[in-house]
Design brief:
alpha/beta; 8-stranded parallel barrel; repeat; carbohydrate metabolism; GH10 domain-containing protein
Length: about 625
Amino acid sequence: MTQSIQKRQFCVAKFNVTSFNSNISLVFQEIYAPACLCCAKMRISIGAYWVLVFLCIFLSSGHSIHAFSYDYSATTECLIEPQRAQYGGGIVANPEFTYSLEGWTVYGEGAIREGISKDGNKYIIAHSRTQSLDSASQTVQFEEGNLYIFSAWVQVNRGRESVAVVLRTAAGELIRAGNVIATDGCWSLLKGGIFANFSGPAEILFESKNTTVEIWIDNVSLQPFTMEQWRSHQDESIHKERKRKVRFQVTYANKTAVEGAVISIKQTESSFPFGCGMNHYIVENVDYQNWFASRFRYATFTNEMKWYSTEKKQGQENYTIADAMVRFAKQNGISIRGHNIFWDDPKYQPDWVKNLSPNDLREAAAKRINSVVSRYEGQLIAWDVMNENLHFSFYEEKLGEDASAEYFSTAHQLDPGTRLFMNEYNTIEDCTDEAANPFNYKKRLEEILSYPGNQGILAGIGVQGHFSSDQPNLAYMRASLDILATIGLPIWLTEVDVGRGPNQAEYLEQVLREGYSHPGVEGIIMFVGPAIAGFNVTTLADKDFKNTPSGDVVDKLIDEWKSKPTEIKADSEGSIEVSLFHGDYNITIKDPVSNSLTRWNYNMIKDDTTGTVHIHINA
């Protein structure tokens, strides 16, 4: 029994109790190693039975003896056969329907039956549905404060329909955890998650608003993690994705090793773009300039490049403020994300644009995009081409469904070296906003990039990251980033902030750590700043530029995500090995014999496979 526990062969399967004093047959299912394809039956005493009962309750409540590594894998492909359940199903009983329908019941007025593919794969079918939540159901235990990652493979028996996973608590609260567009004839991965703000039982349900379709479900998983385990995933990923081990070897010109050489290493720049929103106050406020330039090397102008700022009256363009901000950024080595060329929300058009005829709008928009993109050609690292294109459709309604795709094409022609982004909110923040879910984001971006002539566009994925004052749903955020990462384009968090509240600083740190640690994320811009510049949602410094708690968090992370200055003495081979964050470094080597100093610049890049960096010094 001890050996089985050490191998992580835990419940949950089934207890068959024939009488209190009898031996009990316990079926164990391996929930960790996907290679285990069978279950083992063991005969145990009644005393051991109660130990195991406690263990199963303990594990199903969200605890674990082994802290699972997080599985970042996802796919948006529709597969003929589903992949195995992640984490072996986690705390879900009979997750792959090996035991037919055991552990599963009907919720609502529908019915369930077993399905079997031609290759013998078993799954469950929810049919005869009359309400959107009529589906297969299983009750599991949740523990407040834990994070739960959900995944399942689903399809419908005809057409294409949105299928969501919904948790129903004992109090009747319905909590959405994710959704996917399911198709007939193949299996789609539904991946999501929740932060549990309750303890107790909840039912796993599947929802489709089209009650005429059957929901087919297979390989279901719900894996709990404590916040400590979640943080360990982040640290592990940061070590893997943002750092690299490097070996320096110091030799004289004659290739003799310099034993005892003292190698000093100081990082001067991080290669990960971590920046901040900037507004017009910076043009004339020296304190704001110093505050910004001392911290950040990446910026987005919050409003100053937008159409309603540069052409308030038709035909009267004014780039004075934007140009001044660009000059400041250049003087201080700050890279700029262009924000934005167009905004699809009718509310945020220049007043004179709102009621233009389609022909007049087309002409005005053509002038706008040519003006702003040409003006800053080669000076920006990115453009948000069409802002909030999943929630709004001002230009599509006026100019046709390909309007956004055409503007991506034009922007690329005018400035082919600048990366072009969709920029959307609630894709990672809120799983109840179906319009902006990762699958709809992917679908819209693919429509834009498949438009004739757009195949060569340098594109990116922009997710804004405006979080409320409530506990962020980090599980959904991570699962959404997993899905977006399958597109294969760089993901940027473009406008991160957190609503005002007593836990604002803590939640801001959680969101930033989640973004920085995710393998698919290649940049973060916060829409935060000092009070004197009007940043009143997430304020980093008060009117005297003294840090707020959120400001302390940002400064702490800037420092933490940078290698500390270090000094190491070389071994007998003149070598040292050290793990460093990606970025630029000043290296100083002190000759132990002559005490002479050699200075050297080094750029640590992520994909460099160089085993040893050789440094030659004069004897």
